[in-house]
Amino acid sequence: MAPVFTLDDLAAWQRPGTALAVVGHPIAHSLSPRMHNAALAVMRQTHAELADWEYFRFDIAPDDLGRALPLFLARGFRGLNLTVPHKVLATQWVSSIAPAARPIGAINTLRAENGAWHGFNTDGHGLAEGIRETLGLSLAGTPVILLGAGGAARSAAVQALQEGCASLAIANRTASSLQSLLQDLSPLAGAIPLRGFDPQNPPSDLPSGALVINATSAGLKESDPRPINLAQLPPPAAVYDMIYNPPLTGLLADARQRGLPFANGLSMLVHQGARALHLWTGHSVPVATMRAALA
Ligand code: NDP
Predict the structure, then answer these.
(1) N or C end of the chain: which has fewer CB within 10 A?
(2) What is the pLDDT of residues 109-142, one digit of tens each?
């Protein structure tokens, strides 16, 4: 596994070559270096300018992010991925945010341009592509039941509305964060029916044939409760869980037991990463190589 670097390592950074990195806290679990370095190894066979590109990982505490981001620029880093807990925090430290990422209020990809960081969010794209690839479903025209109101749920909701889902119903444990998400989404929804509900008590008129997307972190630990009881929903079309480790969450085990199509978040991880690598290099990215590197 790639070593985990720190703010002190960054301050003393003298490695030659073009650097990329994922930045999070904690970060030791991240598979992104493996996935990106495998893709770069293939891409440099046809794009000689990528010969010295390498992807690293950094553990940076939230309080240090404001110091670290200019330092990454000064040390010549070309691009960064941001993960928990930096996606919202970083929006205050960048020069611009891509229009598609603005309604999300969070960024997961930074690109260095003219001595400044520019922010993007590739999570929604990764989710849509992952769902297409694993479940053969498009968000467009599909009723969506989304679980969660954190950063990942925000990018999922914006993507679903932008792609023209048939309807969007969002459930979250904490009502106040659900309300604030619904408020932020309402200008985007237009004619698309948008509602919130209590996951403990789903309303009886939710649509059948919906795509259920888990964007909560409930399921990361074996002892976690299910984010929803599938038996309380009208029969869904499929269940997608953004969690990929463990590969079969309790929610996905329930889906399997009910004979529903299901998939975990590995495909989302791959496609959000592929979009980021495309933003940095400008080249098409070998998605199959990235997927194989995680297998
Ligand atoms: P946040 O911390 O921003 O949000 C966490 C969400 O999970 C909140 O809605 C929170 O509800 C809910 N939640 C946490 N614990 C529980 C619980 N025990 N029961 C019910 N709900 C719970 O995290 P993110 O939005 O950034 O990430 C959410 C998940 O998505 C994570 O598991 C992450 O790994 C995954 N993810 C996967 C990606 C991929 O590429 N596959 C990309 C990005 C994220 P409340 O408001 O009540 O606290």
Answers:
(1) C
(2) 999 999 999 999 999 999 999 999 999 999 999 9
Best probe residue, ligand 1, of 217, 266, 270, 294 (max atoms within 8 Å of C-beta): 217
Place of tokens 């598979």: 31
The 10s digit of each residue's pLDDT in 7-57 is: 999 999 999 999 999 999 999 989 999 999 999 999 999 999 999 999 999
Q: Using the mean position of ligand 1's atoms as its centre, give its distance from the Cα of residue 278 in Å.
A: 26
> How many C-beta atoms lie closer than 10 Å to residue 106's C-beta?
22
121 three-class SS: coil
Contacts of 83 (CB under 8 A, 6+ apart): 22, 23, 24, 27, 30, 32, 108
**Cα dihedral 45, 46, 50, 53 sign:** negative
Query: How far is it, in rounded angstroms, from Cα 279 to Cα 277?
Result: 5
> Ligand 1: distance of its center to the CA of 35 in Å?
22
Give me the residue label for tokens 């990454």: 72
Cα separation of 121 and 105, whole Å?
9
- At 246, which amino acid appears? P
Whether 87 sits among the annotated catalytic residues: the reply is yes
Task: State the DSSP string of 214-236.
Answer: E-SSTTSSTTPPPSS-GGGSSPP
* For ligand 1, mutation pick of 123, 178, 216 (most atoms within 8 Å of CB): 216
Burial of 51 (0-12, 13-18, 19+ CB in 10 A): exposed
* Cα distances (Å, whole numbers) of residue 220 to 29, 77, 241, 244: 12, 31, 11, 8
Q: Give the 3-state secondary structure of residue 90.
A: helix
Encode 126-138: b = buried (16+ Cβ within 10 Å), e = exposed. bbbbbbebbbebe
